[in-house]
Amino acid sequence: MTGAPLLTIRDLSVIWPGTERPAVAGVSLDLRQGERLALIGESGSGKSTLARAIAGLLPPRTRLRGGLHWAGDTPRLGRDIGYVFQDPGGSLDPLLSIGAQLVETLRAHLPLDRAAARDRAQALLTQVRLPDPAAALAAYPHQFSGGQRQRIAIALAIAADPKLLIADEATSALDMLVQAEITALLRELSETRGMTLLFITHDIALAGGLADRIAVMRDAHLVEAGAARQVIDAPTEAYTRQLLAAHMDLNGPRLVGPAPEAVSA
Ligand SMILES: Nc1ncnc2c1ncn2[C@@H]1O[C@H](COP(=O)(O)OP(=O)(O)OP(=O)(O)O)[C@@H](O)[C@H]1O
Q1: What is the CATH number of the domain that holds 24?
Q2: Is residue 121, in this structure, part of any structural domain at all?
Q3: For the ABC transporter domain, which residue ranges apply (predicted)?
Q4: Fewer CB within 10 Å: N-end or C-end of the chain?
């Protein structure tokens, strides 16, 4: 179930340093507590820029207009907001064991001694379904597959129990089977923790299988936002219909339905 607004975005525009054209232009959108919102649109439409604005991850000289209004205190990245990037390498230090990275992150945000942090690290690796979590604590990032590294990056992102997790094309570099597994994991984590999920993808089918609501961006603007089923079954915008048609032609999986793991063969 989704609840009260977590974040209200009003007329937000973002211009990157050294550029003149807004990468996000006049976007208004609400993010509700506990919901899964998919942000879709083609490459360059402004999805990551919007996500970075929400996470406070834009460089200092970025020009920002309009408002981001949080319910409660302004959240801190890493503590209240978790961010998972397309390339898990961006979040993982190749020279540190997985256990050391998780313990460091946990102790930076929570009042835990080393032993308690290590127990919590192992529990997190269990939650993201990494095989043999105890052994994984002593291993290094290069010893894992791309999908496993992404599971570890997700464990790091949720370590401090954030209220919002942003998955920015987090499954795009993975093959289809692993992509479905990671998407199912993100759904499960958001459900069991009551954590809001902002899922960014250019894949409307993936969005439909995961999200409560879908927001569609095109050329820096938000062109459509609504319940996932409504956006997919009865899109109001020609651009959304184009995105759907492009996917239909690929004869892809059903667009709205149970999580991928629950679909019978
Ligand atoms: N670091 C940056 N400096 C300057 N301009 C940027 C930067 N990052 C993105 N942009 C510009 O902002 C616009 C929106 O890009 P953005 O990455 O937000 O789109 P996107 O929809 O997330 O695309 P993709 O799916 O390829 O990541 C593009 O014109 C892009 O060139």
Answers
A1: 3.40.50.300
A2: no
A3: 9-244
A4: C
